[in-house]
Every structure is written in C-alpha cells, then in structure tokens.
Amino acid sequence: MTTPPPNEIHELRLKALATFIRESDKILVNWDAYSDEHTDLDGWPHDARSYGLRASRRDADAWRSFNRVRSFAKDLLATAEVQLQQLPARTIQSRWAWQLATLDTALVELSALQRDWLNVRDSLPPSAKPGTEEYDEPLAERYAEAWHYLDEWSSHGQAVLDIHAAAQHSPPRVLAITPVQAPAAPAQAAKPSTARR
Prior knowledge:
By secondary structure, the chain is mainly α. It contains seven helices and no strands. It has helices at residues 6-37, 48-70, 73-86, 95-123, 133-156, 158-168, 172-175. The chain is globular and about 55 Å long.
C-alpha cells in the first residue's frame, strides 16, 4: 500500500480536526443541557455524585475525540503558521496569530498531562487495571485537567481550517505549500508500555 502524498495526508488531518470540533461542540451542548437540568437556580447540582460522574464522562469523551488529532496536531499548527506568513495581508484575520499561539500552549499542556499520566500508570502495581479505582482515579484526573485545553482546541481549532481555506483561495505560491512537520520533541527515556489511553 502506497503512502498518500503529503497534501492528501494534510487534507485528511484537517478533516480529523473538523470532526473533533463538531464532536466537541456536541459534547458541550449535551453537557450544558445536562447541567441545566440537574442543577438548581444557583448552579448547585441536585446530586453531586451523579453530576461529578457525568462531568467525568464529558471530560473522557472530549479526550477520546481529540486523540484522533493529538499525534499530528503540532504538524497542523506548523503548517498553519507557514501558511499565515505567506498569505496576503488583506486576507489575514487579526485573531489568527493569537489563536495559533493559544492552540500551541494548549497542546504543550495536553502533552505534559499525557506524560504525567503515563508515568503514573507505569508506576501502578499490576493489580491496578482499567475498572479499578487505583487506575481509574488518576485517569479521571488527567481527563479533568485536560478539559480546559481541549476546550481551547474546540474553540480555536477552526483557525487552522480557516487559514488553510484562505491559502486555498490565495495565489498559487501559498497553495503549493508542502505541509510542515513540526520538529520532534526531545527524546525522553521511557519504559515501553502497552496500549495508550
């Protein structure tokens, strides 16, 4: 099986980002509906335990949705930054530069949370498996801490799509940009591990 050309791979990655944005919007709408129905007028939940469990599910759903983008999100940002530099000034939205910076910061935080979780997971005893409190509790903490940064990607990820669309409608020199591969993160010594969550 032949590898698709870089431009086709980039288009597939943009579609994955668009899917994440749609899914995360749906996750947030569903959460808002749940929250409105299960809290009093002051915003206090009727049942704190059920509310907390539902919030945990929201966080986990958002993480799983972003997982389809996370491995190449840095490359999407690198390509968008190059495209932005080459776009004609009249086509650039002033918010795009800070949106890309916000996405980059959020991605750094998400990567740190993932590294921390993998370190915790690797230090757990063999008895700590999915479905046990010892495993599920730190995983839920990772999901909860990631929510804000995932929301940043949901809110500002459209900028990557908009910059690409502007590049498509610009002179050929912009359109012909080869997708950029972000520099690799410094190698870290890590124990080999099983499937990542």
